[in-house]
């Protein structure tokens, strides 16, 4: 008990925040072979990194070295460690450790030395960046089926003793990205880089049970004293399937599954900063928090790694599959800046609630919404809209290229007066045109940024 108290005190002292410094992020580029697009990716990654650096501060690291994953244990002794990571982590970054894979009779004497290296100095997060045409890119990965593929995907590979991500991975799917028109390519890649870097920094579903209280330095969700991990249990997930997952505290961290605006199996983040920002933005003092995307349903996951697009469309971490391409095709270049690109107060609130970061809200980027003519709207839908607005489901139709329904009602009204066959035929034709355009938008939406929130966290053995 005394040891536990001392550990908690030491842990809390690490959260004093007095020594936190702007985060240092080091990209490590691998397998880059696409010429000019590689340079564009590097340039936009640099911009994204610099943006997050102005917003997030951490307890600085002196030298990062990463633990090897244990592949086989007997009587709580590791007998075999991982010698190769699929993301190509250099051996010089690993910690030295002894294993027992050549011992006999389950001896506790370890007799295999796994070499260590010098690590990575003067950084707080390392990002492995590649441009491979992976199965996820091609849409053939069993857990991320999508015949059109994805624009990018990201993961958290390693975390520190407080679960803050210290090693991440981003892969740009250049075959998909190459489909974007040249004049929009730079903006698109910057949006992708900011989005995927958000995941690598910890904006993932798997981070939610691992969050800490920034004021106390203690976990928001109680940990097992032996494994130091949250409790596992069965949970009904977004797709209606029941899975065994790490459970987050349901009174202080995550609610769900719940029904919100008639959508079942929804999850709501209810951490303090998220609640505070949501109440201020929407003008609703009874809001408990903000929903994660209930529209993001895939095999193998439980709840989501994005905000609900219908509440915070313009935030970089909202789930909006393919809306970038929809916008540039339907509304012109003026729409580019308003889609999936703003690191808003909502996302900064998420990072604050992890306990790993201090955030600078004065650097938050404003959420920009675009109207039907491609013009930016100063006050986004939902801005100070009140509690009643939050209870309405209105996502369907927000991204339509033209207000066909309005014209349909006008024509029907005229028809009611003149009773002419032509008037009946016109709204029918308009409805067919609307359906055709919606199908086209759905087809185009398959070419989106990661938008499935790829999260391949480390395996716990």
Helix segment count?
Answer: 11
What Rg is obtained from the alpha carbons, in whole angstroms?
Answer: 24 Å
Average pLDDT value? Answer: 75
Strand order of the largest sheet: 2-10-12-11
Distance between the termini: 26 Å
Can you offer a commentary on this structure?
- Helix 2 crosses helix 5 and helix 10 packs antiparallel against helix 11.
- The chain is built from eleven helices and 20 strands.
- 28% of the residues lie in helices and 18% in strands.
- The strands form eight sheets. It has a four-stranded mixed sheet with strand order 2-10-12-11, with helices on one face.
- By secondary structure, it is α+β, with helices and mostly antiparallel strands.
- The N terminus and C terminus are likely disordered.
- A hairpin with a 5-residue loop joins strand 13 and strand 14.
């Amino acid at each position: 008990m005394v040891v536990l108290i001392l550990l908690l005190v030491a842990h809390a002292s690490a959260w004093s925040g007095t020594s936190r410094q702007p985060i240092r992020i080091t990209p490590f580029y691998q397998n880059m072979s696409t010429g000019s697009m590689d340079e564009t990716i590097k340039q936009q990654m640099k911009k994204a990194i610099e943006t997050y650096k102005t917003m997030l501060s951490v307890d600085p690291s002196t030298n990062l070295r990463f633990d090897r994953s244990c592949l086989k244990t007997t009587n709580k002794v590791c007998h075999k460690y991982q010698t190769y990571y699929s993301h190509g982590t250099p051996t010089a970054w690993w910690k030295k450790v002894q294993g027992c894979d050549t011992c006999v009779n389950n001896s506790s004497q370890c007799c295999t030395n796994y070499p260590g290296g010098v690590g990575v100095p003067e950084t707080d997060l390392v990002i492995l960046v590649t441009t491979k045409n992976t199965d996820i890119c091609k849409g053939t990965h069993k857990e991320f089926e999508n015949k059109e593929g994805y624009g990018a995907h990201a993961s958290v590979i390693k975390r520190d003793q407080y679960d803050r991500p210290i090693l991440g991975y981003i892969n740009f799917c250049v075959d998909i990205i190459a489909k974007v028109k040249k004049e929009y390519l730079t903006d698109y890649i910057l949006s992708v880089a900011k989005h995927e870097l958000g995941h690598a920094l910890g904006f993932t579903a798997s981070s939610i049970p691992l969050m800490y209280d920034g004021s106390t330095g203690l976990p928001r969700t109680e940990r097992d004293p032996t494994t130091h991990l949250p409790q596992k249990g069965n949970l009904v997930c977004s797709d209606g399937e029941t899975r065994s997952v790490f459970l987050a505290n349901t009174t202080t961290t995550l609610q769900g599954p719940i029904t919100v605006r008639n959508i079942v199996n929804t999850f709501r983040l209810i951490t303090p900063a998220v609640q505070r920002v949501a109440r201020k933005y929407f003008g609703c003092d009874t809001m408990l928090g903000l929903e994660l995307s209930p529209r993001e349903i895939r095999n193998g996951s439980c709840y989501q790694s994005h905000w609900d697009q219908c509440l915070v469309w313009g935030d970089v971490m909202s789930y909006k599959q393919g809306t970038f391409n929809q916008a540039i095709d339907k509304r012109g270049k003026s729409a580019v800046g308003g889609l999936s690109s703003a690191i808003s107060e909502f996302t900064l609130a998420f990072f604050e609630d992890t306990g790993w970061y201090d955030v600078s809200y004065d650097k938050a980027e404003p959420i920009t919404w675009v109207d039907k003519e491609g013009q930016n709207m100063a006050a986004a839908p939902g801005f100070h809209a009140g509690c009643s607005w939050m209870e309405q489901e209105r996502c369907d139709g927000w991204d339509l290229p033209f207000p066909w329904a309005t014209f349909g009602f006008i024509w029907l009204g005229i028809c009611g007066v003149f009773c002419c066959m032509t008037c009946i035929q016109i709204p029918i034709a308009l409805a067919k045109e609307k359906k055709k355009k919606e199908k086209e938008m759905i087809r185009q939406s398959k070419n989106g940024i990661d938008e499935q929130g790829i999260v391949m966290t480390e395996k716990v053995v």
